[in-house]
Amino acid sequence: MAAASSNLEFETVCVDSGALPDDAWMVHPCEWYKEEYKDCKSLKARFHQYFVHGQTVDCTQWQNDFKNCMSWRKYRDIDAFKNVLESERNRIIQRQAASQANNIWELRKEPPEDWNKPLPDWMQKEHEYSYLKLKQKERNGATETSSCVIL
């Protein structure tokens, strides 16, 4: 996801939620689709696509999503919105296909019984002076704060 869209609101914020499907939250800001299209077409992405897939990937879906999203934003075209939403659903299905087709690993129904057992002694000793451990002690009031940094 592009960094430029990190502080943007979703496209459905200013719309009556009764008029939209329940999963309308899946539609990203339009700028997100534009950034994904630009990234998909970049030289770096093309090298990566060729390395992973043996050919370049078709990026037109990102472009179509951007156009449909802008049509939704400007004209409140519900059909365009539904097209973007359907595209998002398809992306999720594609992304999850590999893990669902996996017949090697058995998925857990619940965590292991001993998931929160204490770490081994050697690991506790190794992490005794780690940044996180010191911050935890500061938070608990067990130690005084220090911000000495040696460069």
UniProtKB/TrEMBL annotation:
Family annotation (InterPro entries): Pants/Emi1-like
Chief localisation class: other
Compartment(s): Synaptic cleft
PANTHER family: UPF0545 PROTEIN C22ORF39 (PTHR28052)
Family: Belongs to the UPF0545 family.
Name of this chain's protein: Synaptic plasticity regulator PANTS
Gene (name only): LOC106478219
